[in-house]
Input
Amino acid sequence: MTTLADFTASTITGQDKNLADYVGSAALVVNTASKCGFTPQYAGLQDLYARFHERGLVVLGFPCDQFMHQEPGTESEIAEFCSVNFGVEFPMFAKVDVNGEDAHPLYTWLTSSHAGPHGDIPAGEIGWNFTKFLVGRDGAVIARYGPKVEPADIADDIERALAADA
Output
Protein backbone atom coordinates (compact mmCIF):
# COMPACT_ATOMS: atom_id res chain seq x y z
CA MET A 1 0.00 0.00 0.00
CA THR A 2 1.34 3.44 -0.91
CA THR A 3 1.74 5.92 1.94
CA LEU A 4 3.18 9.37 2.52
CA ALA A 5 6.50 7.64 3.27
CA ASP A 6 6.85 6.64 -0.39
CA PHE A 7 7.49 10.21 -1.58
CA THR A 8 10.20 12.82 -1.59
CA ALA A 9 9.89 16.52 -2.23
CA SER A 10 12.21 19.48 -2.53
CA THR A 11 12.07 21.84 0.44
CA ILE A 12 11.56 25.55 -0.09
CA THR A 13 15.33 25.94 0.39
CA GLY A 14 16.13 23.33 -2.26
CA GLN A 15 17.00 20.22 -0.26
CA ASP A 16 15.48 16.86 -1.09
CA LYS A 17 13.29 15.71 1.79
CA ASN A 18 12.17 12.13 2.25
CA LEU A 19 8.57 12.32 3.49
CA ALA A 20 9.20 9.06 5.35
CA ASP A 21 10.79 11.39 7.94
CA TYR A 22 7.21 12.28 8.93
CA VAL A 23 6.09 8.70 9.58
CA GLY A 24 4.74 8.60 13.10
CA SER A 25 3.33 12.11 12.78
CA ALA A 26 -0.10 13.03 11.54
CA ALA A 27 0.30 15.39 8.59
CA LEU A 28 -1.88 18.10 7.13
CA VAL A 29 -0.77 18.52 3.50
CA VAL A 30 -1.89 21.78 1.88
CA ASN A 31 -1.39 23.40 -1.52
CA THR A 32 -0.80 27.06 -0.80
CA ALA A 33 -0.61 30.41 -2.59
CA SER A 34 0.47 33.87 -1.46
CA LYS A 35 -1.94 35.97 -3.53
CA CYS A 36 -5.22 34.14 -3.00
CA GLY A 37 -8.37 35.03 -1.12
CA PHE A 38 -7.62 32.04 1.12
CA THR A 39 -4.03 33.15 1.87
CA PRO A 40 -5.03 34.25 5.42
CA GLN A 41 -5.45 30.53 6.14
CA TYR A 42 -1.67 30.46 6.61
CA ALA A 43 -2.36 31.94 10.07
CA GLY A 44 -4.82 29.16 10.89
CA LEU A 45 -2.42 26.50 9.62
CA GLN A 46 0.34 27.96 11.79
CA ASP A 47 -2.06 27.96 14.76
CA LEU A 48 -2.80 24.26 14.22
CA TYR A 49 0.90 23.51 13.92
CA ALA A 50 1.69 25.41 17.13
CA ARG A 51 -1.20 23.78 18.99
CA PHE A 52 -0.59 20.18 17.94
CA HIS A 53 3.06 19.89 16.90
CA GLU A 54 4.23 18.68 20.32
CA ARG A 55 1.63 15.88 20.10
CA GLY A 56 2.71 14.77 16.63
CA LEU A 57 1.16 16.99 13.94
CA VAL A 58 3.14 18.37 11.05
CA VAL A 59 1.72 20.79 8.49
CA LEU A 60 3.32 20.47 5.05
CA GLY A 61 2.88 23.47 2.75
CA PHE A 62 3.23 23.02 -1.01
CA PRO A 63 3.06 26.32 -2.94
CA CYS A 64 1.31 25.98 -6.29
CA ASP A 65 0.93 28.47 -9.14
CA GLN A 66 -1.67 26.54 -11.15
CA PHE A 67 -4.67 28.62 -10.11
CA MET A 68 -4.80 32.07 -11.74
CA HIS A 69 -1.05 32.65 -11.17
CA GLN A 70 -1.64 33.25 -7.45
CA GLU A 71 1.81 32.02 -6.41
CA PRO A 72 4.13 33.98 -8.74
CA GLY A 73 7.11 34.36 -6.39
CA THR A 74 10.35 32.47 -6.13
CA GLU A 75 10.84 29.99 -3.31
CA SER A 76 12.84 32.56 -1.31
CA GLU A 77 10.11 35.19 -1.82
CA ILE A 78 7.45 32.69 -0.73
CA ALA A 79 9.44 31.70 2.38
CA GLU A 80 9.93 35.34 3.36
CA PHE A 81 6.26 36.18 2.73
CA CYS A 82 5.08 33.28 4.90
CA SER A 83 7.49 34.06 7.71
CA VAL A 84 7.00 37.83 7.80
CA ASN A 85 3.22 37.90 7.30
CA PHE A 86 2.08 34.75 9.11
CA GLY A 87 4.98 33.54 11.27
CA VAL A 88 5.00 30.21 9.43
CA GLU A 89 7.24 27.68 11.17
CA PHE A 90 5.90 24.50 9.60
CA PRO A 91 7.78 22.86 6.70
CA MET A 92 7.32 24.50 3.32
CA PHE A 93 8.30 22.95 0.04
CA ALA A 94 9.24 24.16 -3.41
CA LYS A 95 6.45 25.05 -5.81
CA VAL A 96 4.70 22.05 -7.34
CA ASP A 97 1.93 21.33 -9.79
CA VAL A 98 -0.96 19.55 -8.10
CA ASN A 99 -2.96 18.68 -11.22
CA GLY A 100 -2.21 17.49 -14.70
CA GLU A 101 0.61 15.73 -16.45
CA ASP A 102 3.30 17.50 -14.40
CA ALA A 103 1.63 17.01 -11.02
CA HIS A 104 4.02 16.09 -8.24
CA PRO A 105 3.74 12.33 -7.55
CA LEU A 106 2.59 13.10 -3.99
CA TYR A 107 -0.41 14.97 -5.37
CA THR A 108 -1.12 12.28 -7.94
CA TRP A 109 -1.39 9.91 -4.98
CA LEU A 110 -3.32 12.32 -2.72
CA THR A 111 -5.94 12.95 -5.42
CA SER A 112 -6.49 9.24 -6.09
CA SER A 113 -9.24 7.43 -4.17
CA HIS A 114 -8.62 6.38 -0.57
CA ALA A 115 -10.52 4.44 2.07
CA GLY A 116 -10.96 6.83 4.98
CA PRO A 117 -12.27 6.08 8.47
CA HIS A 118 -15.60 7.71 7.58
CA GLY A 119 -15.98 6.12 4.15
CA ASP A 120 -14.27 6.37 0.83
CA ILE A 121 -12.49 9.59 -0.12
CA PRO A 122 -13.19 9.92 -3.83
CA ALA A 123 -10.53 10.72 -6.38
CA GLY A 124 -10.51 14.13 -7.98
CA GLU A 125 -8.27 16.93 -9.07
CA ILE A 126 -7.50 19.83 -6.78
CA GLY A 127 -10.04 22.58 -7.47
CA TRP A 128 -8.24 25.53 -5.87
CA ASN A 129 -5.56 26.69 -3.47
CA PHE A 130 -5.67 25.58 0.17
CA THR A 131 -7.13 22.13 -0.42
CA LYS A 132 -6.09 20.09 2.61
CA PHE A 133 -5.41 16.39 3.17
CA LEU A 134 -5.17 14.90 6.66
CA VAL A 135 -2.77 11.96 6.74
CA GLY A 136 -2.56 9.63 9.74
CA ARG A 137 0.58 8.60 11.57
CA ASP A 138 0.62 5.47 9.41
CA GLY A 139 0.91 7.61 6.26
CA ALA A 140 -2.60 6.85 4.95
CA VAL A 141 -5.02 9.58 3.88
CA ILE A 142 -7.76 10.09 6.48
CA ALA A 143 -9.70 13.02 5.02
CA ARG A 144 -9.80 15.71 2.34
CA TYR A 145 -11.03 19.28 2.90
CA GLY A 146 -11.88 21.92 0.35
CA PRO A 147 -10.40 25.42 0.34
CA LYS A 148 -13.36 26.98 2.15
CA VAL A 149 -12.79 24.75 5.19
CA GLU A 150 -10.93 26.87 7.71
CA PRO A 151 -7.98 25.22 9.44
CA ALA A 152 -9.62 25.66 12.86
CA ASP A 153 -12.54 23.53 11.64
CA ILE A 154 -10.17 20.59 11.22
CA ALA A 155 -8.94 20.65 14.84
CA ASP A 156 -11.36 17.97 16.08
CA ASP A 157 -10.35 15.62 13.25
CA ILE A 158 -6.68 16.23 14.09
CA GLU A 159 -7.42 15.45 17.75
CA ARG A 160 -9.02 12.16 16.72
CA ALA A 161 -6.15 11.32 14.34
CA LEU A 162 -3.58 11.97 17.03
CA ALA A 163 -5.50 9.97 19.63
CA ALA A 164 -6.33 7.06 17.32
CA ASP A 165 -2.82 6.72 16.04
CA ALA A 166 -0.95 7.25 19.29
